[in-house]
Design a protein that fits this description.
By secondary structure, this protein is mainly beta. It has three domains: 214 residues, Jelly Rolls, CATH 2.60.120.230; 140 residues, TolB, C-terminal domain (Neuraminidase); 160 residues, Neuraminidase (6 Propeller). The chain has four helices and 34 strands. The strands form nine sheets. It has a five-stranded mixed β-sheet, covered by helices on one side. The longest helix has 11 residues. The N and C termini lie far apart (52 Å). One of its GO terms (molecular function) is peptidylglycine monooxygenase activity. It is an enzyme of class 1 (oxidoreductase). This is peptidylglycine monooxygenase.
Length: 556
């Protein structure tokens, strides 16, 4: 089993690693690949006691390096099939990394679950294919958590001839102690390969939860270059800090990342108090001169990217009854519509997008720093390079609404799969569908339909308004605005998986963003007359759908 991902963040420094499979695993090896050169992070038998081992030599990971891992398994002596999965009778491939980063750039949890470049493994060092022999007494120590498969695995523990150069010293006690000490640190990368369509269960859920529970949620945010999640309210950007709460004991400050339950949801239970987000009221970005702000995102360097409408306004005079833009004669927005800001002090770092757009709407930034935006007046989707004046890709036909493969009708948002490059567009206000394109812009498929009823079924939308791609679970989640809910679908299949809906959402749910590691952020809409739900942001555990915090601006 091979895993590889391009690293797209600030430098990190590795100091320990841990490997994990079930009984069939013989050797797990992890590498940094830079300019074709393979540098060993660590290799170890997964049959040894579970512990973090120190790297033999310091290893630094820089932007665009590749992190790669290989797990070697043997089914010798087995008479039945073994599948990828989360139970003790299945197999899995895990390579964990402990690291540190500069505090201002630190990210406390990252994952890699794909193989971005299978061909590269033709050049993996041969040592990755050579098992490490384990003494029988070490095997007894190592398999306490696999008791459920003991009988099935008796035949798999075949002893091999001892090779002097591969013998492992009896250092289990030392490494167990080291693991306990390092386990108090929070900087862990979890590399895990599994079948995302199967329910995460048993060992898998326990392993992931074990990693996540080691995170100190307060320290995580203060280390993120102060790039806290910003919440949009009309044409002003509010910045928030996440703070500790005193409502619950410290040992409960965690959430468990598990495979979400499939099927149609209902009202998910709410639970708050683990931590709290408060506005940074003195953030200078409040004084920015902006038009209607329609989109916010973070680029790969953790800078804040703002998409705004300049001197154009979307109001009751913007469109006719057939959704044709009525102010074409005014021309495009003459100001730069995309602004890149330092999130700490709101200093303008870069700007672009002049004379391109009429009514900006959605904004997302892919792993390569490209901007993906929508324009509801042009009925188009654009891909823009950070330093390019002309679009790299345009989808849709300018100023022509439609519902076929070549037209949109007021598209609202874009999400790009970091692995396949597939492009997902929420074609919203007049089409109520999700459209998938290849990385080059070739139409692949669409799903969804509009509905005017309050009891909307799965796959029915009333203004699919915002998209969040969940790479850990290969899901695309949609803020179904007028239905006041979140719907999640399989990335490749487009099949409905689950719904998340809370009474506190009210009737409308506008925006949504996912943070790798398991947090989902959403923002609802203004309450209808006679209703009480306030406009606010929600922080949710993606796995359970629970609300774990709410927040709103001090100044409206």
């Amino acid at each position: 089993a091979d895993i590889a991902c391009h690293y797209k963040r600030f430098p990190m420094h590795l100091f320990a690693y841990r490997v994990h499979t079930h009984r069939l695993g013989k050797i797990v090896s992890g590498y940094r690949v830079r300019n074709g050169q393979w540098t060993l992070i660590g290799r170890q038998s997964p049959q040894l006691p579970q512990a973090f081992y120190p790297v033999e030599h310091p290893v630094d990971i820089h932007f665009d390096d590749i992190l790669a891992a290989r797990c070697v398994f043997s089914g010798e002596g087995r008479t039945t099939e073994t599948h990828i999965g989360g139970t003790a009778n299945d197999e899995m491939c895990n390579f964990y990394i402990m690291y540190y980063m500069e505090a201002k750039h630190a990210v406390s949890y990252m994952t890699c679950t794909q193989n971005a470049n299978p061909e590269m493994f033709r050049n993996i060092p041969q040592e990755a294919n050579i098992p490490i022999l384990v003494k029988p007494d070490m095997l007894k120590m190592a398999h306490g958590h696999h008791e459920g498969s003991k009988e099935a695995d008796k035949s798999s523990l075949l002893q091999q001839p001892k090779r002097e150069e591969e013998e492992v010293l009896d250092q289990g006690d030392f490494y167990s102690l080291l693991s306990k000490l390092l386990g108090k640190r929070e900087d862990v990368v979890h590399v895990h390969k599994y079948n995302p369509t199967e329910k995460a269960d048993s060992d898998l859920a326990a392993e992931i939860a074990n990693v996540v529970q080691k995170k100190d949620l307060a320290r995580e945010v203060t280390n993120l270059d102060e790039r806290d999640n910003a919440i949009l309210v009309r044409d002003r950007i509010h910045k928030f800090h996440r703070l500790e709460s005193t409502l619950r004991p410290p040992e409960n400050r965690h959430f468990s990342l598990q495979q979400p339950t499939r099927g149609e949801g209902s009202w998910e239970k709410e639970h708050t108090g683990d931590f709290h987000i408060e506005e940074v009221v003195d953030w200078p970005g409040l004084d920015l001169k902006l038009g209607q702000v329609s989109g916010l995102a973070l680029d790969p360097e953790n800078n804040l990217v703002v998409f705004h409408r300049g001197d154009h306004v979307w109001d009751e005079n913007s469109f006719d009854s057939k959704f044709v833009y009525q102010q074409q004669g005014v021309g495009p927005i003459e100001q730069d519509t995309i602004l890149v800001l330092n999130p700490s002090n709101a200093q303008l770092l870069h700007s672009t997008g002049k004379n391109l757009f009429y009514l900006p709407h959605g904004l997302s930034v892919d792993q390569n720093g490209n901007y993906w935006v929508t324009d509801v007046a042009l009925h188009q989707v654009f891909k823009l390079g950070a330093n390019d004046k002309e679009p790299l890709l345009i989808l849709g036909t300018a100023l022509q609404p439609g519902s076929d493969k070549n037209h949109f009708c007021q598209p609202t948002d874009v999400a790009v799969d970091p692995v396949t490059g597939s492009i997902y567009v929420s074609d919203s206000y007049c089409n109520s569908r999700i459209v998938q394109f290849s990385a080059s812009g070739l139409f692949l498929k669409q799903w969804g339909e509009g509905t005017s009823s309050a009891g909307a079924r799965p796959g029915q939308f009333r203004s699919p308004h915002s998209l969040a791609l969940i790479p850990e679970f290969s899901q695309l989640c949609i803020a179904d605005r007028e239905n006041g809910r979140i719907q999640c679908f399989g990335l490749e299949s487009g099949q409905f998986i689950r719904e998340i809906k809370h009474k506190s959402f009210g009737r409308e749910l506008f925006a949504m963003s996912y943070v790798p590691g398991g947090l989902l952020f959403t923002v609802n809409g203004m309450p209808y007359p006679g209703e009480m739900e306030p406009v606010q942001g929600f922080v949710m555990n993606f796995s359970t759908g629970e609300i774990i915090d709410t927040f709103s601006p001090v100044r409206k």
